[in-house]
Design a protein that fits this description.
single chain, alpha+beta, Peroxisomal Thiolase, Chain A, domain 1, 2 domains, five-stranded mixed β-sheet, four-stranded mixed β-sheet, about 30% helix, globular, binds acetyl coenzyme *A
Length: about 325
């Protein structure tokens, strides 16, 4: 059997941080309100000249180095992002060029906060089908560019960053399975609905959100898809060593962990210092826990995410 296995991780956060106390000075909010409702204390914000591909490049170099490979060894680049550098070409093509790689096929995946799970599943299928050997999968976001910094209901939630993994063909698993879902009828609950027309944005290009609707949808869909991926492997929540959730809101994460019977000591948390970095949040959290030694060979990891679209999904991994 052919499987795929993560052999290297990397991440990058822009230097600038914006704390809740900074936001108190610009919108009608408080540190205590943000922490109690979301668990977020600060977030990173990209510099003026930093694009999604720049954040992705830093994270990718670290992941490729951790994998013991060279950029030229990569034969598939998938970038998950909601904030691409350009309308086109894809950020994956920009990244491929910045890496100095000419051997890889390259494309973007747009599934908002579920983007990394969608991209991981896609790369796993390419590898198991024999079409790729070393895949670079990146979640990268400069969400600060599509936030209305005067809207306290959204600007406190999000941050910028990138995370990357190298997925390699392997004789042993690896990715045990992944389950994906989408429901486009719910797309208005969370969107940046502007359109490009006559060279200009027509309508609202900032993130708009029904916070309570998203919260309820997230809590339901995440526990269901987590149960689904566990059942496909005859496993229970208590068999999981580490849950690496999309870092949107501590209360959503706590609710999912509780439904799975998992203690919070088994959950990798970065939401307090990263905020919600959409497609980047899972690989950022994964890299954090790999590099600090929490994740060890043979352990079982559960990743889950939900995002605009709506899209949602989960992946089960043996490390
Ligand atoms: N500071 C202070 N008050 C605020 C803020 C703020 N930043 N934002 C909203 N409020 C106010 C509201 O205006 C409202 O005031 P009112 O009662 O006078 O009308 C009050 O706080 C309560 O608002 P709610 O929307 O009911 O607050 P809630 O407890 O639902 O928390 C939140 C809002 C944090 C957005 C929550 O609904 C949530 O986390 N939803 C999930 C959203 C999410 O995670 N989105 C990310 C993208 S999707 C994803 O990644 C899963």
């Amino acid at each position: 059997m052919i499987y795929s296995k993560i052999i290297g991780t990397g991440s990058y956060l822009p230097a600038k941080t914006v704390t809740n106390y900074d936001l108190e000075k610009t919108v009608d909010t408080t540190h205590d309100w943000i922490v109690s409702r979301t668990g977020i204390s600060e977030r990173h914000v990209a510099a003026e000249n930093e694009m999604s591909s720049d954040l992705a490049l830093h994270a990718s170099i670290r992941a490729i180095e951790a994998a013991g490979l060279k950029a030229a060894d990569i034969d598939l680049v998938i970038v998950a992002t909601t904030t691409p550098d350009h309308i086109f070409p894809s950020t994956a093509c920009v990244l491929q060029d910045k890496l100095g790689n000419k051997n890889a096929i390259a494309f973007d995946v747009q599934a908002v906060c579920s983007g990394f799970i969608y991209a991981l599943n896609t790369a796993d299928l390419y590898i198991r089908d024999g079409q790729a050997k070393n895949a670079l999968i990146v979640g990268t976001e400069v969400l600060s560019r599509i936030l209305n910094w005067d809207d306290r209901t959204t600007c406190v939630l999000f941050g910028d960053g990138a995370g990357a993994v190298v997925l390699q063909r392997s004789d042993t698993p690896g990715i045990l399975s992944a389950k994906l879902h989408a429901d486009g009828s719910q797309r208005c609950m969370l969107s940046a609905p502007g359109q490009i027309r006559d060279g200009k944005i027509d309508g609202e290009a900032f993130i708009k959100m029904d916070g309570q609707g998203v919260f309820k949808f997230a809590v339901k869909s995440l526990s269901e898809v987590a149960e689904e991926v566990l059942a496909a492997n005859n496993m229970k929540g208590t068999d999981i060593d580490w849950m690496i959730p999309h870092q949107a809101n501590i209360r959503i994460i706590e609710s999912t962990a509780k439904k799975l019977g998992l203690g919070m000591d088994k959950v990798v948390l970065t939401v307090a210092t990263h905020g919600n970095t959409s497609a980047a949040s899972i690989p950022l959290a994964l890299d954090t826990a790999v590099r600090d030694g929490r994740i060890k060979p043979g352990q079982h990891l559960l990743m889950e995410a939900v995002g605009g679209g709506f899209t949602w999904g989960a992946a089960l991994i043996r490390w």
